[in-house]
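pinging the channel bc i need a second pair of eyes. not urgent but kinda urgent?? the chain im working w is below, pasted from the shared doc
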Amino acid sequence: MINIKSKNQEYEQFSKLANDWWDENGKFKVLHQIRPLRIEYILNSVDKDTLSGLDILDVGCGGGLVSESLANLGANVTAIDFVENNIKIAKKHSQKNKLKINYICSDIENYNFSKKYDLIVLFEILEHLENWQRFIYKIKKNLKKNGKMIISTINRNTLSKIATIYIGEKILKWIPEGTHDFNKYIKPEELQEYILENKLKFCKLKGYLFNPIDFSWHLSTNTSINYFCTIKN
């Protein structure tokens, strides 16, 4: 029988880790390392050097790593996470850095947003949801005309299981053990098929990989493990 992590288990997992968000050498070290890569992909996707004036929604914002980067680039950022401790940490850190970010603590799968956004960011979120298809169907209604949704998630295959769970979590300890549930991983073709069925455009598929020679992360055409994609309204 396939055992899929429940929402309560996801909540407990991330609540325990909340205080580590802004420790660059702590349990979220990898997220700090790939943050420039995430921002590079976002800027490439919107074809701009700045995000000034754009209304952006950061879904599953955690401690606010990406939210602060977006705000520093001039975006009007709304960020949401269902873990209360994450939002407390994010608010405290943004206030320290004098950044205006609208943080919301709520269940992202059930929250009803009252406005529309130029860009919705979902980084490593879909593989933690109980029903990612239902969520995309709902959240796409909050895109402005010609708005975009940027997703990063994990492919589902033997290589990705070995890389993210056995190596990433258990051996190298890059990711806190128990973070991922392989059964929730999503193949790019599954995501693309669903997007096209819902009359949206699927584009800019990119992978990102770790280079063990110089210990750096870079964008790649290899999407066998982690990948980005952009969805256009």
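so Strands lie at 55-59, 76-81, 101-105, 117-123, 143-154, 201-211, 216-220, 226-232. and The two ends are 38 Å apart (CA to CA). — does that match what u expected or am i reading it wrong
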